[in-house]
Amino acid sequence: MKPLFQLLFAIAIVLVFNSCDDTLDTDAGTTGIAFSKDTLTFDTVFTTIGSATARVMVYNRRSQPLIIENLYLAGGNNSPFRVNVDGSTNKDHRFGPITLRARDSMYIFVEVKINPLQSDAPILIRDSILFTTDDGSTKMVLEAFGQDMEVLRSLRIRKDTLLNAKLPYLIYGDLVVDTAATLKLAPGTRLFFHNNSNLLVYGNLKAEGTRAEPVSIRGDRMDKIGFTTPVPYNLVAGQWGGVYLLNPTGNHVLRNVNINSGYVGIYYVNRDKQNKPHLEISDCRIHNFLFYNLVAVNGDMTVSNSAITNSGGYTVYLNGGRHTFYHCTIANYFNNPTQSVARDNAPAFMMMTLARSYPMVTRVYNSIIAGSAQNELSLASRFDSLYKADIAFSYIKRTKALDLPQFRQVRWSALRDTVFKGTVQNLEKELTYNFMPDSVSPARGIADPEMAKRFPFDLNGRNRLADGAPDAGAYEWGN
Question: Model pTM?
Fold first, then answer.
Protein backbone atom coordinates (compact mmCIF):
# COMPACT_ATOMS: atom_id res chain seq x y z
CA MET A 1 0.00 0.00 0.00
CA LYS A 2 2.99 2.34 0.45
CA PRO A 3 3.08 3.52 -3.19
CA LEU A 4 -0.62 4.34 -2.98
CA PHE A 5 -0.11 6.52 0.10
CA GLN A 6 2.80 8.29 -1.55
CA LEU A 7 0.64 8.97 -4.59
CA LEU A 8 -2.29 10.22 -2.53
CA PHE A 9 -0.24 12.61 -0.47
CA ALA A 10 2.19 13.90 -3.08
CA ILE A 11 -0.11 16.86 -3.75
CA ALA A 12 1.21 20.00 -2.07
CA ILE A 13 -1.39 22.59 -1.17
CA VAL A 14 -0.26 26.07 -0.17
CA LEU A 15 -2.65 27.61 2.34
CA VAL A 16 -2.78 30.99 4.03
CA PHE A 17 -3.32 30.66 7.76
CA ASN A 18 -5.40 32.96 9.89
CA SER A 19 -8.15 32.85 12.47
CA CYS A 20 -9.74 36.30 12.46
CA ASP A 21 -10.78 38.92 9.93
CA ASP A 22 -10.14 42.65 9.67
CA THR A 23 -13.72 43.91 9.73
CA LEU A 24 -13.87 46.87 12.08
CA ASP A 25 -15.96 46.01 15.13
CA THR A 26 -15.08 48.74 17.63
CA ASP A 27 -15.86 52.44 17.24
CA ALA A 28 -12.95 54.76 17.89
CA GLY A 29 -15.08 56.77 20.33
CA THR A 30 -13.24 59.50 22.22
CA THR A 31 -9.92 57.69 22.54
CA GLY A 32 -9.20 57.52 18.80
CA ILE A 33 -8.11 53.88 19.01
CA ALA A 34 -10.12 51.04 17.46
CA PHE A 35 -9.65 47.32 16.84
CA SER A 36 -10.70 44.91 14.14
CA LYS A 37 -11.80 42.64 17.00
CA ASP A 38 -12.64 43.89 20.47
CA THR A 39 -12.69 40.22 21.56
CA LEU A 40 -10.26 37.86 19.87
CA THR A 41 -11.63 34.33 20.27
CA PHE A 42 -9.65 31.23 19.38
CA ASP A 43 -11.34 27.99 18.49
CA THR A 44 -10.68 25.02 20.77
CA VAL A 45 -6.94 24.66 21.43
CA PHE A 46 -5.39 21.33 22.41
CA THR A 47 -3.28 21.73 25.54
CA THR A 48 0.53 21.68 25.06
CA ILE A 49 0.11 21.92 21.27
CA GLY A 50 -0.56 25.62 20.78
CA SER A 51 -2.65 27.55 18.31
CA ALA A 52 -2.09 29.01 14.91
CA THR A 53 -1.26 32.72 14.90
CA ALA A 54 -4.23 35.08 14.92
CA ARG A 55 -4.01 38.61 13.58
CA VAL A 56 -5.84 41.70 14.78
CA MET A 57 -5.57 45.29 13.57
CA VAL A 58 -5.19 48.42 15.71
CA TYR A 59 -6.42 51.64 14.06
CA ASN A 60 -5.88 55.31 14.73
CA ARG A 61 -9.07 56.95 13.50
CA ARG A 62 -7.97 60.46 14.42
CA SER A 63 -6.60 63.06 12.04
CA GLN A 64 -3.53 63.48 14.26
CA PRO A 65 -0.94 61.04 15.68
CA LEU A 66 -1.95 58.74 18.52
CA ILE A 67 0.53 57.96 21.30
CA ILE A 68 0.14 54.47 22.81
CA GLU A 69 2.08 54.96 26.02
CA ASN A 70 1.71 51.37 27.19
CA LEU A 71 0.54 48.19 25.47
CA TYR A 72 0.81 45.07 27.59
CA LEU A 73 -0.63 41.66 28.32
CA ALA A 74 -2.53 41.76 31.59
CA GLY A 75 -1.40 38.26 32.58
CA GLY A 76 2.23 39.01 31.87
CA ASN A 77 4.60 36.04 31.80
CA ASN A 78 2.01 33.83 33.49
CA SER A 79 -0.43 34.20 30.61
CA PRO A 80 -0.87 31.34 28.10
CA PHE A 81 -1.17 34.01 25.40
CA ARG A 82 1.79 35.51 23.53
CA VAL A 83 1.75 38.78 21.58
CA ASN A 84 3.82 40.25 18.78
CA VAL A 85 3.32 43.94 17.99
CA ASP A 86 4.09 44.86 14.39
CA GLY A 87 6.87 42.29 14.27
CA SER A 88 8.35 43.09 17.69
CA THR A 89 8.42 40.79 20.71
CA ASN A 90 9.15 41.38 24.38
CA LYS A 91 9.74 38.77 27.05
CA ASP A 92 7.49 40.68 29.48
CA HIS A 93 4.85 41.34 26.78
CA ARG A 94 5.10 45.09 27.36
CA PHE A 95 5.44 47.62 24.56
CA GLY A 96 5.53 51.39 24.28
CA PRO A 97 5.56 54.18 23.75
CA ILE A 98 4.29 53.65 20.20
CA THR A 99 3.35 56.48 17.85
CA LEU A 100 0.58 55.62 15.44
CA ARG A 101 0.33 58.18 12.70
CA ALA A 102 -2.93 59.82 11.71
CA ARG A 103 -5.32 57.39 9.99
CA ASP A 104 -2.67 54.66 10.27
CA SER A 105 -2.85 51.12 11.63
CA MET A 106 -0.63 48.33 12.94
CA TYR A 107 -0.77 44.57 13.43
CA ILE A 108 -0.86 42.61 16.64
CA PHE A 109 -0.26 38.87 16.32
CA VAL A 110 -1.48 36.57 19.08
CA GLU A 111 -0.80 32.91 19.89
CA VAL A 112 -1.93 30.75 22.78
CA LYS A 113 -0.43 27.64 24.32
CA ILE A 114 -2.31 26.14 27.24
CA ASN A 115 -0.86 23.82 29.85
CA PRO A 116 -2.72 20.58 30.68
CA LEU A 117 -5.94 21.37 32.53
CA GLN A 118 -6.64 18.00 34.21
CA SER A 119 -10.19 18.20 32.90
CA ASP A 120 -12.18 16.11 30.45
CA ALA A 121 -14.26 19.12 29.33
CA PRO A 122 -12.98 22.24 27.54
CA ILE A 123 -12.17 25.16 29.86
CA LEU A 124 -12.41 28.84 28.91
CA ILE A 125 -9.11 30.74 29.25
CA ARG A 126 -9.19 34.55 29.20
CA ASP A 127 -6.77 37.45 29.27
CA SER A 128 -6.62 41.01 27.92
CA ILE A 129 -4.28 43.31 26.04
CA LEU A 130 -4.38 46.69 27.83
CA PHE A 131 -3.78 49.98 26.03
CA THR A 132 -2.95 53.32 27.66
CA THR A 133 -3.06 56.19 25.17
CA ASP A 134 -2.52 59.92 25.43
CA ASP A 135 -6.25 60.40 25.89
CA GLY A 136 -7.59 57.30 27.65
CA SER A 137 -7.39 53.58 28.30
CA THR A 138 -9.06 50.56 26.71
CA LYS A 139 -8.56 46.84 26.31
CA MET A 140 -8.88 43.96 23.87
CA VAL A 141 -10.18 40.69 25.33
CA LEU A 142 -8.46 37.39 24.48
CA GLU A 143 -10.19 34.06 25.00
CA ALA A 144 -9.70 30.43 24.06
CA PHE A 145 -11.14 27.07 25.04
CA GLY A 146 -8.43 24.70 26.19
CA GLN A 147 -8.96 20.96 25.75
CA ASP A 148 -6.83 18.17 27.20
CA MET A 149 -6.26 15.23 24.86
CA GLU A 150 -4.37 11.97 24.52
CA VAL A 151 -1.62 11.94 21.90
CA LEU A 152 -1.04 8.78 19.84
CA ARG A 153 2.18 8.84 17.82
CA SER A 154 2.63 6.18 15.12
CA LEU A 155 0.86 3.66 17.32
CA ARG A 156 0.44 0.03 16.29
CA ILE A 157 -2.42 -1.74 18.08
CA ARG A 158 -1.50 -5.43 18.55
CA LYS A 159 -4.40 -6.62 20.70
CA ASP A 160 -8.11 -5.87 21.03
CA THR A 161 -8.38 -2.25 22.15
CA LEU A 162 -11.21 0.09 23.15
CA LEU A 163 -10.85 3.85 22.70
CA ASN A 164 -13.39 5.80 24.73
CA ALA A 165 -14.96 9.25 24.82
CA LYS A 166 -13.17 10.53 27.93
CA LEU A 167 -10.66 12.65 26.01
CA PRO A 168 -10.15 13.29 22.30
CA TYR A 169 -7.26 11.46 20.63
CA LEU A 170 -4.72 13.47 18.65
CA ILE A 171 -2.99 11.21 16.13
CA TYR A 172 0.42 11.83 14.57
CA GLY A 173 1.67 9.39 11.96
CA ASP A 174 -0.49 6.36 11.21
CA LEU A 175 -2.72 4.58 13.71
CA VAL A 176 -2.29 0.93 12.67
CA VAL A 177 -4.51 -1.99 13.73
CA ASP A 178 -2.60 -5.28 13.48
CA THR A 179 -4.02 -8.37 11.78
CA ALA A 180 -4.93 -10.11 15.04
CA ALA A 181 -6.52 -7.06 16.67
CA THR A 182 -9.90 -5.36 16.74
CA LEU A 183 -10.10 -1.63 17.38
CA LYS A 184 -13.35 -0.60 19.06
CA LEU A 185 -14.49 3.02 19.22
CA ALA A 186 -17.03 3.71 21.95
CA PRO A 187 -19.92 6.20 21.56
CA GLY A 188 -18.61 9.76 21.55
CA THR A 189 -15.02 8.84 20.67
CA ARG A 190 -13.22 11.66 18.84
CA LEU A 191 -10.20 10.97 16.61
CA PHE A 192 -8.27 14.01 15.34
CA PHE A 193 -5.72 13.10 12.65
CA HIS A 194 -2.74 15.28 11.85
CA ASN A 195 -1.85 16.14 8.26
CA ASN A 196 -1.31 12.98 6.15
CA SER A 197 -2.08 10.67 9.09
CA ASN A 198 -4.25 7.59 8.45
CA LEU A 199 -6.18 4.85 10.19
CA LEU A 200 -4.79 1.61 8.69
CA VAL A 201 -6.84 -1.44 9.66
CA TYR A 202 -5.27 -4.84 8.92
CA GLY A 203 -7.50 -6.39 11.60
CA ASN A 204 -11.07 -5.29 12.38
CA LEU A 205 -12.75 -1.97 13.10
CA LYS A 206 -15.86 -1.64 15.26
CA ALA A 207 -16.86 2.02 15.50
CA GLU A 208 -20.24 2.06 17.20
CA GLY A 209 -21.57 5.46 18.14
CA THR A 210 -25.13 6.54 18.86
CA ARG A 211 -27.26 9.36 17.48
CA ALA A 212 -26.67 11.32 20.68
CA GLU A 213 -22.97 10.43 20.84
CA PRO A 214 -21.58 9.77 17.36
CA VAL A 215 -18.00 8.74 16.73
CA SER A 216 -16.06 11.57 15.06
CA ILE A 217 -13.08 11.10 12.72
CA ARG A 218 -11.58 14.29 11.27
CA GLY A 219 -8.46 16.45 10.89
CA ASP A 220 -6.77 18.17 13.82
CA ARG A 221 -6.87 21.78 12.60
CA MET A 222 -9.26 23.68 14.86
CA ASP A 223 -8.53 27.14 13.45
CA LYS A 224 -9.57 28.90 10.25
CA ILE A 225 -8.14 29.65 6.82
CA GLY A 226 -8.41 32.97 5.01
CA PHE A 227 -8.21 36.66 5.72
CA THR A 228 -11.37 38.44 4.60
CA THR A 229 -13.70 35.44 5.02
CA PRO A 230 -12.15 32.94 7.45
CA VAL A 231 -13.35 29.36 6.93
CA PRO A 232 -12.91 26.55 9.48
CA TYR A 233 -10.28 24.07 8.32
CA ASN A 234 -12.77 21.34 9.17
CA LEU A 235 -14.80 22.45 6.12
CA VAL A 236 -11.78 22.16 3.79
CA ALA A 237 -10.99 18.78 2.18
CA GLY A 238 -7.51 17.26 2.39
CA GLN A 239 -6.78 17.92 6.08
CA TRP A 240 -5.68 14.34 6.85
CA GLY A 241 -5.40 10.93 5.16
CA GLY A 242 -8.26 8.44 5.44
CA VAL A 243 -9.61 5.17 6.83
CA TYR A 244 -8.12 2.09 5.10
CA LEU A 245 -9.79 -1.29 5.69
CA LEU A 246 -7.28 -3.82 4.35
CA ASN A 247 -8.05 -7.17 6.00
CA PRO A 248 -9.16 -9.81 3.42
CA THR A 249 -11.21 -11.56 6.11
CA GLY A 250 -12.20 -8.40 8.00
CA ASN A 251 -15.57 -7.84 9.63
CA HIS A 252 -16.00 -4.10 10.08
CA VAL A 253 -18.87 -2.11 11.58
CA LEU A 254 -19.42 1.66 11.43
CA ARG A 255 -22.57 2.93 13.14
CA ASN A 256 -23.30 6.59 13.82
CA VAL A 257 -19.89 7.72 12.63
CA ASN A 258 -19.07 11.13 11.15
CA ILE A 259 -15.99 11.15 8.89
CA ASN A 260 -14.99 14.26 6.97
CA SER A 261 -12.51 16.45 5.13
CA GLY A 262 -9.54 14.17 4.41
CA TYR A 263 -8.09 12.76 1.19
CA VAL A 264 -10.05 9.48 1.15
CA GLY A 265 -13.02 8.62 3.38
CA ILE A 266 -13.17 4.81 3.49
CA TYR A 267 -10.81 2.79 1.30
CA TYR A 268 -12.15 -0.77 1.58
CA VAL A 269 -10.06 -2.90 -0.77
CA ASN A 270 -9.30 -6.62 -0.83
CA ARG A 271 -6.46 -8.08 -2.91
CA ASP A 272 -6.99 -11.67 -1.73
CA LYS A 273 -8.49 -13.97 -4.40
CA GLN A 274 -9.83 -16.52 -1.92
CA ASN A 275 -11.46 -14.43 0.82
CA LYS A 276 -13.95 -11.60 1.08
CA PRO A 277 -14.35 -9.14 3.94
CA HIS A 278 -17.60 -7.57 5.11
CA LEU A 279 -18.40 -3.98 5.99
CA GLU A 280 -21.55 -2.59 7.60
CA ILE A 281 -22.14 1.17 7.45
CA SER A 282 -25.26 2.57 9.09
CA ASP A 283 -26.38 6.05 10.16
CA CYS A 284 -23.09 7.59 9.03
CA ARG A 285 -22.04 10.84 7.41
CA ILE A 286 -19.02 10.58 5.09
CA HIS A 287 -18.46 14.07 3.73
CA ASN A 288 -16.04 16.28 1.83
CA PHE A 289 -13.00 14.35 0.61
CA LEU A 290 -10.39 15.52 -1.87
CA PHE A 291 -10.36 12.21 -3.79
CA TYR A 292 -13.03 9.60 -2.92
CA ASN A 293 -15.54 9.10 -0.11
CA LEU A 294 -16.11 5.34 -0.34
CA VAL A 295 -14.11 2.85 -2.40
CA ALA A 296 -15.19 -0.81 -2.18
CA VAL A 297 -13.23 -3.43 -4.15
CA ASN A 298 -13.78 -7.19 -3.79
CA GLY A 299 -15.65 -6.98 -0.51
CA ASP A 300 -19.26 -7.33 0.62
CA MET A 301 -20.91 -4.25 2.05
CA THR A 302 -24.25 -3.05 3.41
CA VAL A 303 -24.86 0.71 3.72
CA SER A 304 -28.04 2.04 5.30
CA ASN A 305 -29.48 5.39 6.33
CA SER A 306 -26.23 7.20 5.48
CA ALA A 307 -25.17 10.34 3.64
CA ILE A 308 -22.09 10.02 1.42
CA THR A 309 -21.49 13.47 0.00
CA ASN A 310 -19.01 15.70 -1.85
CA SER A 311 -15.73 14.48 -3.28
CA GLY A 312 -13.16 15.57 -5.83
CA GLY A 313 -13.52 12.23 -7.65
CA TYR A 314 -15.92 9.31 -7.30
CA THR A 315 -18.16 9.66 -4.27
CA VAL A 316 -18.90 5.92 -4.28
CA TYR A 317 -16.79 3.50 -6.36
CA LEU A 318 -17.79 -0.20 -6.52
CA ASN A 319 -15.81 -3.01 -8.13
CA GLY A 320 -16.31 -6.64 -7.11
CA GLY A 321 -18.42 -7.98 -4.24
CA ARG A 322 -22.02 -7.67 -3.10
CA HIS A 323 -23.11 -4.14 -2.19
CA THR A 324 -26.51 -3.06 -0.88
CA PHE A 325 -27.66 0.50 -0.16
CA TYR A 326 -30.85 1.34 1.76
CA HIS A 327 -32.10 4.91 2.24
CA CYS A 328 -28.79 6.52 1.29
CA THR A 329 -28.05 9.99 -0.03
CA ILE A 330 -25.13 9.86 -2.45
CA ALA A 331 -24.54 13.39 -3.74
CA ASN A 332 -21.61 15.35 -5.11
CA TYR A 333 -21.56 19.15 -5.17
CA PHE A 334 -17.89 19.33 -4.23
CA ASN A 335 -16.16 22.69 -4.26
CA ASN A 336 -13.06 23.70 -2.32
CA PRO A 337 -12.90 27.45 -3.00
CA THR A 338 -10.12 28.11 -0.50
CA GLN A 339 -7.88 25.75 -2.50
CA SER A 340 -9.35 26.55 -5.94
CA VAL A 341 -10.11 22.84 -6.32
CA ALA A 342 -13.22 21.64 -8.14
CA ARG A 343 -14.51 18.12 -8.71
CA ASP A 344 -13.39 16.14 -11.75
CA ASN A 345 -15.71 14.53 -14.31
CA ALA A 346 -16.22 11.31 -12.35
CA PRO A 347 -19.85 10.46 -11.51
CA ALA A 348 -21.01 10.33 -7.91
CA PHE A 349 -21.85 6.61 -8.18
CA MET A 350 -19.64 4.29 -10.22
CA MET A 351 -20.25 0.56 -10.76
CA MET A 352 -17.39 -1.14 -12.61
CA THR A 353 -16.76 -4.78 -13.40
CA LEU A 354 -13.28 -5.91 -14.39
CA ALA A 355 -12.03 -9.33 -15.40
CA ARG A 356 -9.99 -9.65 -12.21
CA SER A 357 -12.87 -8.64 -9.95
CA TYR A 358 -15.00 -10.85 -7.77
CA PRO A 359 -18.53 -11.46 -9.07
CA MET A 360 -20.50 -8.30 -8.40
CA VAL A 361 -24.08 -7.60 -7.35
CA THR A 362 -25.38 -4.08 -6.68
CA ARG A 363 -28.64 -3.27 -4.93
CA VAL A 364 -29.87 0.27 -4.30
CA TYR A 365 -33.25 0.93 -2.65
CA ASN A 366 -35.02 4.11 -1.50
CA SER A 367 -31.96 6.22 -2.24
CA ILE A 368 -30.81 9.40 -3.99
CA ILE A 369 -27.93 9.67 -6.45
CA ALA A 370 -27.46 13.32 -7.41
CA GLY A 371 -24.92 16.10 -7.87
CA SER A 372 -23.66 18.98 -9.98
CA ALA A 373 -22.65 16.86 -13.02
CA GLN A 374 -24.97 15.88 -15.84
CA ASN A 375 -24.64 12.15 -15.19
CA GLU A 376 -24.14 11.02 -11.61
CA LEU A 377 -24.46 7.27 -12.16
CA SER A 378 -22.28 5.20 -14.45
CA LEU A 379 -22.24 1.47 -15.20
CA ALA A 380 -19.06 0.14 -16.78
CA SER A 381 -19.66 -3.46 -17.79
CA ARG A 382 -18.97 -5.45 -20.94
CA PHE A 383 -22.61 -6.52 -21.12
CA ASP A 384 -24.75 -3.94 -19.33
CA SER A 385 -27.97 -5.92 -19.61
CA LEU A 386 -26.37 -8.90 -17.82
CA TYR A 387 -25.00 -6.84 -14.96
CA LYS A 388 -26.43 -8.17 -11.70
CA ALA A 389 -28.24 -5.33 -10.00
CA ASP A 390 -31.56 -4.19 -8.60
CA ILE A 391 -31.99 -0.42 -8.31
CA ALA A 392 -35.47 0.63 -7.28
CA PHE A 393 -37.62 3.34 -5.66
CA SER A 394 -34.83 5.88 -6.02
CA TYR A 395 -34.02 9.24 -7.60
CA ILE A 396 -31.08 9.28 -10.05
CA LYS A 397 -29.60 12.24 -11.90
CA ARG A 398 -28.81 11.47 -15.54
CA THR A 399 -29.50 13.36 -18.74
CA LYS A 400 -30.72 10.11 -20.26
CA ALA A 401 -32.47 7.30 -18.41
CA LEU A 402 -30.90 3.86 -18.57
CA ASP A 403 -33.34 1.51 -20.27
CA LEU A 404 -32.13 -1.63 -18.52
CA PRO A 405 -34.02 -4.29 -16.58
CA GLN A 406 -31.99 -3.60 -13.44
CA PHE A 407 -33.75 -0.26 -12.95
CA ARG A 408 -37.35 -0.19 -11.76
CA GLN A 409 -39.50 2.44 -10.11
CA VAL A 410 -36.72 4.97 -10.63
CA ARG A 411 -37.41 8.70 -10.83
CA TRP A 412 -34.92 9.92 -13.41
CA SER A 413 -33.94 13.58 -13.19
CA ALA A 414 -35.53 16.45 -15.06
CA LEU A 415 -33.78 19.64 -16.17
CA ARG A 416 -34.85 21.98 -13.38
CA ASP A 417 -35.14 19.61 -10.45
CA THR A 418 -34.52 21.07 -7.01
CA VAL A 419 -33.49 18.04 -5.03
CA PHE A 420 -31.98 19.38 -1.78
CA LYS A 421 -32.47 22.36 0.50
CA GLY A 422 -28.89 23.61 0.10
CA THR A 423 -26.18 22.55 -2.35
CA VAL A 424 -24.01 25.69 -2.28
CA GLN A 425 -21.81 26.33 0.71
CA ASN A 426 -22.19 29.85 2.12
CA LEU A 427 -18.67 30.63 3.27
CA GLU A 428 -19.52 34.09 4.61
CA LYS A 429 -21.95 32.56 7.09
CA GLU A 430 -20.05 29.28 7.50
CA LEU A 431 -23.13 27.31 6.50
CA THR A 432 -22.52 23.77 5.32
CA TYR A 433 -24.50 21.90 2.72
CA ASN A 434 -28.04 20.78 3.53
CA PHE A 435 -28.93 17.43 1.95
CA MET A 436 -32.45 17.27 3.34
CA PRO A 437 -34.99 17.09 0.47
CA ASP A 438 -36.42 20.42 -0.61
CA SER A 439 -40.17 20.89 -0.25
CA VAL A 440 -40.52 20.43 -4.04
CA SER A 441 -37.90 17.68 -4.31
CA PRO A 442 -38.72 14.88 -6.78
CA ALA A 443 -37.29 12.47 -4.18
CA ARG A 444 -40.19 13.11 -1.84
CA GLY A 445 -42.68 10.30 -1.37
CA ILE A 446 -41.08 7.89 -3.86
CA ALA A 447 -39.58 5.38 -1.40
CA ASP A 448 -41.06 1.93 -0.90
CA PRO A 449 -43.02 2.15 2.40
CA GLU A 450 -42.54 -1.54 3.19
CA MET A 451 -38.78 -1.28 2.87
CA ALA A 452 -38.81 2.01 4.82
CA LYS A 453 -40.28 0.15 7.81
CA ARG A 454 -36.85 -1.43 8.31
CA PHE A 455 -35.41 2.07 8.80
CA PRO A 456 -38.23 4.07 10.39
CA PHE A 457 -36.04 7.00 11.49
CA ASP A 458 -33.90 9.10 9.19
CA LEU A 459 -30.35 10.28 9.84
CA ASN A 460 -31.65 13.20 11.92
CA GLY A 461 -34.01 11.01 13.93
CA ARG A 462 -37.14 12.13 12.07
CA ASN A 463 -39.88 9.53 11.59
CA ARG A 464 -39.99 8.85 7.84
CA LEU A 465 -43.23 6.84 8.21
CA ALA A 466 -45.25 9.63 9.82
CA ASP A 467 -46.98 10.81 6.64
CA GLY A 468 -47.23 7.37 5.01
CA ALA A 469 -45.13 8.51 2.03
CA PRO A 470 -41.45 8.18 2.94
CA ASP A 471 -38.85 10.09 0.97
CA ALA A 472 -35.87 8.58 -0.79
CA GLY A 473 -32.48 9.21 0.73
CA ALA A 474 -31.03 9.42 4.22
CA TYR A 475 -33.11 12.44 5.24
CA GLU A 476 -36.88 12.89 5.45
CA TRP A 477 -38.24 16.27 4.45
CA GLY A 478 -39.31 18.59 7.25
CA ASN A 479 -39.68 22.26 8.05
Answer: 0.88
